[in-house]
Amino acid sequence: MISQMGGLDGLDDLYEAIILDHYHNPRNKKFIDNPDFDEEINNPFCGDELRIQAKFNDDKLEGISVSGRGCAISQASASLLAEYVEGKNVKEILNAVNIVRNMLKGEEISEKDRENIQDIDALSGVQKFPIRIKCALLGWTGFYDLINANLRSS
Ligand code: FES
User: What is the pLDDT of residues 5-14, one digit of tens each?
Assistant: First the structure.
């Protein structure tokens, strides 16, 4: 079952302009050639899903495609991920995932880290809605796990 956008009436903080823009105009959705990995992840509780393709040159991400179906938060957050990580190295990507994870858990984020994650800060409003945190993290933790499984095991 794929969830829709409904059920979030009144949660204006959640729908900052950046999030709506990414939901309606997802970045880096186009499939890439010869990815190093091409895998699907999903939220088992709702069935929302993402397909992530990634191509690295040494440890630098030179191509990524993220596409999927699901709620506005999961899809917009995945688009923010796809835009942010392109061109970054593995260490920078894993660091960003940790920052996003901590931010969504409501932990204190340094000014430097907040600047580092740029537009992704728009997701900070999600921390007020615990049920949506898994939505916002779907792509981030999924990509983290895929990197560890595909790049670090070799
Ligand atoms: Fe499934 Fe948001 S409702 S990821």
Answer: 444 444 566 6
Let me know how many helices (H) and strands (E) the chain has, helices first: 5, 3
Q: How far is the CA of 25 from the centre of ligand 1 (A)?
A: 18
Residues 61-76 pLDDT 10s: 999 999 999 999 999 9
C-beta 74 within 6 A of ligand 1: yes
Nearest to 71 by CA among 132, 11, 149, 119: 132
pLDDT digits (tens, 9 = 90+) for 9-48: 445 666 788 999 999 999 999 999 999 999 999 999 999 9
Domain ranges across the chain: 11-150
Q: How far does residue 70's CA lie from ligand 1's centre (Å)?
A: 6
CA distances from 151 to 91, 99, 107 (A): 12, 21, 29
Q: Write down how long the chain is.
A: 154
CATH fold of 11-150 reads Sufe protein. Chain: A (3.90.1010)
What predicted TM-score, i.e. pTM, was given to this entire model?
0.90
CA of 82 to the centre of ligand 1 (A): 18
* Ligand 1 within 6 A of CB of 85: no
Q: What is the CA(57)–ligand 1 centre distance, in A?
A: 32
